[in-house]
């Protein structure tokens, strides 16, 4: 199977991503000083952002993951969020920070917040690398936002297009001017 060959435009560079990870981590360190946080990464898209973010956390941190999927091979949500894998650890009484790559329509985060609240954490905060407000349909509280972007399909740094391109080290968009 081959990934589509397209010209990509850099929307957010590696340097900008690293700088923002340091800034977001500094804010979390300050907000939870003297306390501990339980980080929940939403797979698959969040894996690169999460691994860069947590390197800069100096507070006590535990980490778990769950898998959610709603896009499949499409660039539009199916509208149905499916849990592909659940957490390994309980979250009752914990200060949870959900780490996501992107809030697009908001459907995934709405589903996740409803699900996790039933497990009685002490607190839930949302940390997302990207927010696409022009496309957001569900009103979800965002506590830490890396970058606000326009209504365009982005790939790289964990985000995929039909499972390809997650390994690109920056956030890119397809450069339509260079399409044949
Ligand atoms: O706000 P929404 O419109 O719900 O979109 C955001 C969600 O969509 C993507 O997941 P996807 O279903 O592509 O799974 P993946 O992380 O495995 O790529 C992304 O990683 C978010 O979890
Ligand atoms: O813009 C996007 N790119 C990749 N995956 C996504 N999932 C929701 N929105 C996006
Ligand atoms: Mg995806």
Give an account of the 3D structure.
Pathway: Purine metabolism; IMP biosynthesis via salvage pathway; IMP from hypoxanthine: step 1/1. It catalyses: IMP + diphosphate = hypoxanthine + 5-phospho-alpha-D-ribose 1-diphosphate; GMP + diphosphate = guanine + 5-phospho-alpha-D-ribose 1-diphosphate. GO terms for molecular function: guanine phosphoribosyltransferase activity; hypoxanthine phosphoribosyltransferase activity; magnesium ion binding; nucleotide binding. Its EC number is 2.4.2.8. The chain is α/β, with parallel strands linked by helices and 180 residues long. The chain has a single domain (8-178), classed as Rossmann fold, CATH 3.40.50.2020. The protein is 21% helix and 31% strand. The protein has helices at 14-31, 47-54, 107-117, and strands spanning 8-12, 36-43, 60-69, 82-85, 95-103, 123-131, 144-148, 154-155, 171-174. It is globular and about 50 Å long. 31% of the residues are buried. It binds 1-O-pyrophosphono-5-O-phosphono-alpha-D-ribofuranose (PRP), hypoxanthine and magnesium ion. The site of hypoxanthine (HPA) has 8 residues, from strand 8.
Write the layout of secondary structure elements.
Blueprint: E1 8-12, H1 14-31, E2 36-43, H2 47-54, E3 60-69, E4 82-85, E5 95-103, H3 107-117, E6 123-131, E7 144-148, E8 154-155, E9 171-174
Helix pairs in contact: 1-2
Magnesium ion is lined by residues 45, 71, 160.
